[in-house]
Amino acid sequence: MKLEVKKIKKSFGDTEILHGITFxxxxxVALGLLGRNGAGKTTxxxxxMDVFKANEGEILLDGIAFDRKEHQIGYxxxxxxxxxxxxxxxxxxYLAMLRGMKKKEAAENTKRWLKRLEVDQYLNxxxxxxxxxxxxxxxxxxxxxxxxxxxxxxxxxxxxxPVNSQILKDVVKELIQQGKIVxxxxxxxxxxxxxxDNIAIIDHGEIALKGRLQEIKREYGRHLYILNAExxxxxxxxxxxxxxxxxxxxxxxxxxxxxxxxxKEKVSREDLLAAILxxxxxxxxxxxxxxSLNDIFVxxxxxxxxxxxxx
Amino acid sequence: xxxxxxxxxxxLANYIKNKTYMVTTILMAVILGALMFLPRVLDLTGLxxxxxxxxxxxxxxxxxxxxxxxxxxxxxSQTETYMLFDPDGIVNQELLGQYFPNVTWQNAESEEEIxxxxxxxxxxxxxxxxAENQFTYYVFNKSMTSGDTGTFSELLGLIKQLKYCEENxxxxxxxxxxxxxxxxxxxxxxxxxKDMVSNYFYCYAFVILIFMMIIMYGVMIAxxxxxxxxxxxxxxxxxxxxxxxxxxxxxxxxxxxGICQVGIILGAILLxxxxxRDAWNGFLDSYLNIPVDVxxxxxxxxxxxxxxxxxxxGAVGALVSKTEDINxxxxxxxxxxxxxxxVVLVQLMNVDGIVIKVASFxxxxxxSAMFARVAMxxxxxxxxxxxxxxxIVSVVVAGLIGAKIYRMGTLRYGNPVKFSHALKSVLRKE
Lengths: 311, 430
What we know:
The complex is a heterodimer. Chain A has 2 domains: about 220 residues, P-loop containing nucleotide triphosphate hydrolases (Rossmann fold); about 70 residues, Alpha-Beta Plaits (2-Layer Sandwich).
């Protein structure tokens, strides 16, 4: 299956929030939908969920216009909320039935998912009596109880301790392996890197960057190298590089353990290395820089100092 | 439809599992139903009058008469002091004693003396007779049931009649018999239309009942919607099913719960009254012996009006994020309901007037105005049908607009959205 979001535009009143969002997600390949607060992620998700109607653009599933009512979608919203006074079982069955399941099937799925998420002992407990982490797992169970084909997870790891995070990670990996379409929205970049092969970064209602994460990383790290010296501290090394190697590179960033250097135009890796060897710098570490998703995200959308549009 | 049924069942289960709802319903039905059996276990003849055809009741009648006699004697023994200033000697003292049997009269020397005595509460009241047909009545606090001025006027009238008969050599006994012939007339009343006097009381009670139902359950429905917003479950719900299923399921569940509760309580009262009607000697007929056609009209128009407002309350609930904001946001709606309530209550005395006629066709007010007209006034069948069709169409329109406002409002957090703004916004999109 392939879900394609094409040139989606959305306005609230006179304000256009989305200016033509385009991305695609395939079965078994999770997409990380990223963006700063207010960039338009939630609006995009709500359009996918048919809560809002897009003003322009289309959504296709395997090339055919996507009708949410004909497909099971599991959506875990960022703003968590279930019925605190109801038992876990009651509300999960209710939500599954709202999505078209029969009661018996809903009851079976409820038990199965609660067991998988290791909260089956709370089946008949009121939600409000559970810890925050367990409530979070019940919320995830409510997302998955209808066996969705498409799964949208908005900040699924918030509020979870490392043990529960691991359970959730395993579940998400299983879902991806099962060939589900998974859209994963989070500000915790390490999780996105762990699950998502593809990313789409939304900035001010537009797609700022999208594609395969490895290629993007390679592209971003193409002219970047790391350097550390045995005989200089990082600050001294930075000053030395800026003084003596200014023709070859600029110091892009001072990390905790090394400098990130960016080659100037028409300068090769070998030219830079040779220039370094001509100085008194004793190289401790030198090599290609592999930027993290966080670096890419900050580099791409973190420079203008403004948050995005309106929710 | 399937999802609507799912929401309806879930919401109904919420009411049924609500202890307050269940306890209130059962307790009220049992207590009020049991109250209707009171005349069987307690002697209420003093309140409800003599019952017919029962030996037990006959026995209690004689006891009641005895008690009444004793009460009269006790009452007679408590006399009040009144003052009289009658400079021209118009008032016959003997007749005065007969007309005011429990009063001790003191003659005053001036009008001022009466005024002072009453002000200082040395006398309960006083009369200053200035002519055969003129007097001034002084009293400190006039009670709701005071008939002093009427009695005194009658007394002056009798004195005048006696004087006239004496002056014209007429036999007062004969003349008074002729003039009081109306007392001897016997008649049988056959009401072919409606008895406004006897219908007035239950009509009044039903107008209050439907008003209370709309306000009470309307707020409950709005609270139910707002709670889902405040606990953030709304986002899961609106992404799981259509907003129409949610709002229609919620409102209709609230309506069913309300109707069931009132129906059970009312049913228990009416049924147990019918069982005990003889024991009550028909005492509560004016409230509880309601014709079937009036009950049916009340049910149809009541349910219609109730649903109409329930949808609007549902929409109001979606426009606020916190339950404490509901009252503020629904104040406009409550104002309309209050105005309808007062207009209909006031117009019950003039049930064929133009105001209630117009109100009986407006969906905002027909639920009680048309019911009042059917119970007490002259109304044609075509008027009832037209009004009911208007009400049903309005309920559907209110439902659809309510659903759109609900959809629009569900994911809006922060300051409450004004109902009028939401309505304009929804209509503009149309």
